[in-house]
Design brief:
single chain; 76 residues; alpha+beta
Length: 76
C-alpha cells in the first residue's frame, strides 16, 4: 500500500470513531430449554471509546498525507 492510501484509511477511521464513539450489541443466550418453556437471556454489551482517539487518528492521517506530498515534491 502506498502511504497516501494508508493516510486516507487512517483519516476515515478517525472520522468514523469521532461520529460513532459508542454503540451496543446484544447477544441472546438460551438459559433453559424444555418441551414447553424456552428461557432466554438477552444481554447488551456496550462498546465505548473516547473521541480523542478519533481526533488523534484524523491528525495522523492528515500528517501522513502531507508528508507524502512533500516527499513527492522533493523528489521531482
Amino acid at each position: 500500500m502506498k502511504t497516501k492510501t494508508v493516510g486516507i484509511i487512517i483519516l476515515i477511521t478517525g472520522i468514523v470513531i469521532i461520529v460513532y464513539s459508542k454503540f451496543n450489541f446484544s447477544h441472546v443466550n438460551n438459559v433453559a430449554e424444555t418441551m414447553r418453556i424456552n428461557k432466554t437471556d438477552d444481554r447488551e454489551y456496550p462498546i465505548q471509546w473516547p473521541p480523542v482517539i478519533g481526533i488523534v487518528l484524523v491528525i495522523g492521517g492528515i500528517v501522513i498525507n502531507t508528508y507524502d506530498k512533500r516527499k513527492i515534491n522533493e523528489i521531482a
